[in-house]
Design goal:
Blueprint: E1 45-47, H1 61-73, E2 77-81, E3 84-88, E4 91-93, E5 97-101, E6 105-109, E7 118-123, E8 126-131, E9 135-138, E10 144-147, E11 150-152, H2 156-168, E12 183-186, E13 189-194, E14 197-199, E15 206-217, E16 220-222, E17 236-247, E18 250-252, E19 258-260, E20 301-308, E21 311-312, E22 315-321, E23 327-349, E24 356-377, E25 393-413, E26 420-436, E27 445-456
Parallel strand pairs: 1-2, 2-5, 3-6, 4-9, 5-10, 6-11, 9-12, 10-13, 11-14, 12-15, 13-15, 14-16, 15-17, 16-18, 17-19, 17-20, 18-21, 19-22, 20-23, 21-23, 22-23, 23-24, 24-25, 25-26, 26-27
Antiparallel strand pairs: 7-8
């Protein structure tokens, strides 16, 4: 249909709709470039089997790391993992080095904790001592991990130990029963992880911290929920990041698929939006010496994140904000197929952390799960660290539209104005079929509802 406006010359060109962030700003072309990473451009290629990393069932951490160091000394290049299974502990990649795992090739993580050095790192929203990951890359620019092969965390032994400890100490945390992550990228930019199978992590699978311009493309990320649950094996944890694209991935893990982190604690927002070299004080908290809380020194915001064209198997949350997140905004989850997720959108509201989740869009979704949306206090292991009042949190400008979803509970939202305030939600073009179809629009200030169809099972 063509609409003519009197007094104007009609145009027959197709109208181009700009792709916009939830806050109305335009999404850059960077997010549309998903061409496959080329490995044929590397002139320096190093096959690991030529350097003592062999498929013999023994752990070859020393030889693998020596090769990484050699490639760095040579000025960089591509490390190639051929067909076969190669056992190793923690590996530390450096600037100019790239990893390619060929089809049939497997980097298998050691199940001996001593093969993962304990060092200062970032975990569960805090800067602290913890195990290194299997694959580590810090302060790199342009790092790539590619191929059709597999990086396997060999996590079964770690999972069993966790549940054994939890059986006699129900308060056991991930810090009490430490386990290595699979991939940890920190303080980096222009990173691509593409095509690989990332599986059976002992703990979080892919953790990106304090980094920007990161693309996760065509990945298959998996950990089991039975017969032994793989505890806290999140597929992707985004922790103080900017400009992240997750596209054409399959994710099925025994925890959250994509979890937005960023920090926790009663003063975690002290330096959000503040430029200062003095980390001891913040204009937001006069009289508080923030040097007394070093674990919060690395906290920050997340922005400009797109998760699209992905498929989800079982997981706790398709998109989860929290439980350690301070300020997260401009996040899009779209064109997704979901099967058996516990929650489509989960907003975890910590009573010990000032949080703001803003400008979040979930759209063009089909599938099923337990909760369509879950918003509730998250009180597991919280600590006010001496602060007398509960910091207030906010979730605003949350849009869910163009969704067909079957669930147990449609609107699982807990109202608690003493801890958090919900405002400016939009539900548009929703076709929901659920067991519990109760809906309380009065829980949200300025709730816009358009074309909402909810039927009871």
């Amino acid at each position: 249909m063509m609409v003519l406006t009197l007094g104007c010359v009609p145009s027959f060109s197709k109208k181009i709709t700009k792709d916009l962030w939830p806050d109305g700003t335009e999404i850059s072309e960077w997010f549309r470039d998903t061409t496959q990473t080329r490995t044929d451009v590397f002139t320096n290629k190093y096959r690991i089997t030529d350097y003592g990393v062999i498929n013999d069932g023994r752990t070859h951490t020393k030889e693998f790391q020596a090769l990484i160091d050699k490639v760095a000394a040579d000025g960089g290049g591509l490390i190639v993992v051929p067909e076969g299974t190669y056992l190793t502990g923690a590996l530390f990649f450096r600037q100019g080095i790239h990893l390619h795992v060929m089809s049939g090739g497997v980097i298998m993580g050691s199940n001996d904790p001593s093969d993962y050095p304990i060092l200062k790192t970032r975990i569960e929203g805090e800067t602290c001592l913890y195990y290194s990951a299997l694959i580590n890359a810090d302060s790199v620019d342009g790092f790539t991990m590619t191929g059709r092969g597999t990086i396997d965390g060999n996590g079964l032994t770690y999972w069993k130990h966790f549940w054994e400890r939890r059986s006699w100490n129900p308060k056991c945390t991930n810090k009490d029963e430490q386990r290595p992550r699979l991939v940890y990228i920190s303080n980096s930019k222009n990173v691509r992880i593409e095509g690989l199978n990332l599986q059976n992590s002992a703990f979080w699978t892919t953790h990106i911290y304090n980094s920007e311009n990161v693309k996760l493309l065509r990945l298959h990320i998996y950990s089991p929920a039975k017969p032994v649950k793989a505890p806290s094996t999140d597929a992707v944890d985004l922790d103080v990041v900017r400009n992240v694209l997750i596209k054409d991935c399959y994710m099925s893990v025994n925890d959250d698929a994509v979890a937005i982190k960023g920090g926790k604690g009663p003063y975690a927002d002290a330096f959000i939006g503040v430029e200062t070299n003095d980390r001891s004080k913040s204009p937001k908290y006069p009289g508080v010496n923030l040097n007394d809380f070093p674990e919060m020194s690395g906290d920050g915001e997340n922005s400009n994140i797109i998760i699209e064209d992905c498929e989800y198997g079982f997981c706790h949350g398709c998109l989860t904000l929290g439980s350690e997140s301070v300020y997260s905004h401009n996040i899009i989850l779209r064109n997704i197929k979901v099967n058996e997720a516990n929650n489509l959108l989960w907003l975890k509201m910590r009573p010990d952390t000032p949080q703001r989740y803003s400008n979040i869009t979930v759209e063009k979704i089909t599938g099923n799960g337990r909760n369509f949306i879950l918003v509730a206090p998250w009180t597991q292991f919280y600590d006010l660290k001496g602060r007398k009042d509960f910091p207030m949190s906010y979730s605003d400008n949350i849009t869910m539209r163009d969704i067909t979803f079957e669930c147990r509970v449609f609107f699982n939202v807990k109202q608690d104005e003493s801890q958090y305030h919900l405002s400016n939600f939009t539900f548009e073009n929703l076709n929901i079929r659920g067991e519990d179809t109760d809906f309380h629009e009065e829980y949200v200030e300025n709730f816009v509802i358009k074309n909402l169809h909810v039927t009871k099972k």
